[in-house]
Design brief:
The complex is a heterodimer of chains A (195) and B (266). Chain A has nine helices and seven strands, in the order βαβαββαβαββααααα. Chain A is an alpha/beta fold and 195 residues long. Chain A folds into two domains: 121 residues, no CATH class; 73 residues. In chain A, the strands form two sheets. A five-stranded mixed sheet of chain A has the order 5-4-2-7-6. A two-stranded antiparallel ribbon of chain A has the order 1-3. In chain A, helix 3 links the parallel strand 4 and strand 5. Chain B has one domain. Chain B has 266 residues and is mainly alpha-helical. Chain B is globular, with a radius of gyration of 18 Å. In chain B, helix 1 packs antiparallel against helix 16 and helix 5 packs parallel to helix 7. Chains A and B meet through helix 1 and helix 3 of A and helix 15 of B.
């Protein structure tokens, strides 16, 4: 069972999903908003990803759930090769003021087979989600942020977004370490002068 | 439907054989339930409607439905049609939209949402065909499900009793409810009754089972498998096609077990 897939493999697997959906549900069209490593791989910011994280739909409709399971078995992919874990995290920690406007921005859309529209989330939301997932002990997301080569303003907004969801002291400590690792100073963004 | 003609023809042939068991005098061999398994009447209807052509079936089947309307489980028929995927529902509805079916009883038409449009000519043709059907006495000898409906009344109790005549059925209440397309609670209630009167043991097996049946020839599982097989032929991806055939369950479905070799041979 392949554990990582590249841009070509992501698109191939989505084409198989589109084919399954077109045979089983010929009258329906589907849209997936992709975030995380798959969005980065499709935009060529990284080579491979482990799964396809969705921001939308938050809850997979039965047809998609069924299709994902069939493609998983047919292509020997992990059962959660497409998942809503990222959407679930946002649902769990939804900021009181709602998500920032830029979560509606998209990088681009890819039409697959006429019935499956893939939308890649915008850059600022992608950086924000990656920073939200980052921890000092697991460098995958930190490496991804580095690959995106973010500007200072983008990191500043990502920090604001993460803290709007979780401003716990432990989270701040984690952010401090993660940001230092990618060459930014957490305290500069928060106005603290902690030395 | 993307199935090759050879496969469709094989399916139509086996369906006609099953209808011979139910008393329609087609010129094909009978399905011997003792050897090949029990035929679920309503599942046979759905399988027929999926593959029906403009042949004698179009007049003989309405004749059967009119004559034996009291031994059709309309509730089961309705549930089976309701749970059918939309694209196959369209095929069934299109195939059923022949005039003779509009002469069938309201209870049958309601299950499929058919309209009444029958003319005198059609009714006369159906009446002529009706006289060719085997008698209920004869059908009760060849179809265990019909026999039990005559014994216990048309309903899920009779059908469940038919299923318990299968050797080593090894199915729980939920699985039996799925097989008979009814609610878990309906089957649970009947199972409790049948255990209370020592008709069944605690594992839902018949306590004194003489002359068991080998399994199901055609059941709701057959219908699910047929949907899968029809859809599989629409896939260009070999992997998707392979996945379908690897996951088909032949438990309670000898029909598809016999149909699949015709796909391999094409």
């Amino acid at each position: 069972m392949p554990t990582d897939f590249n841009k070509t493999q992501i698109l191939e697997n989505l084409e198989v999903l589109s084919e399954w959906l077109s045979v089983k549900y010929p009258d329906d069209t589907f849209e997936l908003v992709i975030v995380g490593g798959a969005a980065m791989a499709l935009d060529e910011f990284k080579d491979q990803t482990r799964d396809i994280d969705l921001l939308l739909p938050e809850i997979l409709p039965a047809a998609l759930k069924e299709g994902i399971a069939h493609v998983s078995r047919a292509k020997r992919l992990p059962p959660e090769w497409i998942n809503t874990n990222a959407a679930n995290i946002l649902t769990k920690f939804k900021p009181t003021k709602g998500l920032p406007e830029y979560f509606n921005e998209i990088s681009r859309t890819i039409d697959i087979g006429g019935n499956l529209k893939i939308t890649l989330i915008g850059r600022q939301a992608l950086i924000g989600m990656k920073l939200l997932a980052s921890t000092p002990s697991y460098t995958k997301h930190t490496d991804d942020i580095r690959s995106l080569n973010p500007r200072k303003e983008e990191i500043k907004e990502a920090v604001r977004f993460v803290l709007s969801i979780d401003n716990d002291e432990l989270r701040k400590e984690d952010l401090r370490i993660v940001l230092k690792d990618i060459g930014f100073d957490f305290d500069e963004f928060t106005g603290n002068s902690k030395k | 439907m993307n199935l090759p003609e050879t496969v469709k023809n094989r399916a139509r042939f086996m369906i006609r054989c099953a209808w011979v068991t139910m008393g329609i005098p087609f010129d094909v061999p009978i399905v011997n339930e003792k050897r090949e398994g029990i035929i679920d009447v309503e599942a046979l209807f759905i399988a027929t409607f999926l593959f029906m052509e403009q042949d004698r079936m179009v007049t003989d089947l309405p004749a059967w439905i009119i004559r034996f309307k009291d031994i059709i489980n309309h509730q089961k028929l309705k549930s089976m049609f309701k749970s059918c995927p939309e694209k196959h529902k369209r095929t069934i509805f299109k195939n059923l939209n022949h005039n003779p079916f509009s002469a069938t009883p309201e209870s049958f038409k309601r299950a499929f949402g058919l309209k009444t449009l029958s003319s005198n000519g059609i009714i006369q043709t159906i009446e002529r065909r009706s006289s060719k059907l085997n008698s209920l006495d004869h059908i009760a000898q060849t179809s265990i499900m019909i026999k039990n409906r005559l014994l216990y009344g048309t309903g899920f109790r009779a059908d469940l009793i038919s299923i318990t005549q299968i050797k080593n059925i090894k199915m729980n209440g939920k699985q039996l409810a799925t097989l008979l397309c009814t609610a878990d609670s309906t089957i649970s209630r009947i199972l409790n009754d049948l255990r209370s009167c020592k008709f069944l043991d605690q594992d839902n097996e018949r306590i004194k089972l003489a002359n068991p049946y080998p399994g199901m020839f055609l059941s709701s599982q057959t219908i699910l498998n047929l949907y899968e097989i029809i859809d599989a032929e629409g896939f260009r991806s070999k992997e998707l096609k392979k996945e379908v055939y690897e996951n088909i369950s032949f438990k309670n479905d000898r029909f598809c077990m016999q149909l699949l070799p015709s796909l391999a041979l094409r």
